[in-house]
Amino acid sequence: MPLPPTAVALFAAMPRFSGPFVFSTTAGKVPVGGSSRVKVRLDAALAAQGVTIPPYVIHDFRRCVRSGLGRLGVPTVVAELCLGHRQSGIVGVYDRHSYLSEKKDALVRWEKHLLSVVAPAPVDGSGNVVALPARARA
Question: If you average pLDDT over residues 52-61, what whole number do you get?
């Protein structure tokens, strides 16, 4: 999977495990699951910050990415391949293209979107983003 720069940097900074799984609470021996300690820790961190959200499962993160890729205009086939889904039926038989550059573009779009959420551009005139008056936003 062609990862965008921020993902590569995050993976490079992660601890190395002896097991085959990157996302793990057992030193790579077992992958993170829906009822894993990671979810328990995430739930506790949210609660500590006073954040309340509807109940969720880890798989909801995949759903969020898939929906977001669609919202960003990524074609269905590419978005599905980004999630590791195989093409089925006759398309899966005949379409053997890897879509590598298309997946890279899709994941770079997702990276830009996420970065705009966690580190939005300034709206105080110091950048090239200008805050619109309240009337214009509607």
Answer: 89
65 pLDDT band, cuts 50/70/90, is very high
pTM for the structure as a whole: 0.75
> Is residue 21 a contact partner of residue 31, using CB atoms and an 8 Å limit?
yes
DSSP calls for the chain: ----HHHHHHHHHSPP-SSS-SS-SSTTSS---TTSHHHHHHHHHHHHTT-------THHHHHHHHHHHHHTT--HHHHHHHTTPPP-HHHHHH-----HHHHHHHHHHHHHHHHHHHSPPP-BSSSS-BPPPHHHH-
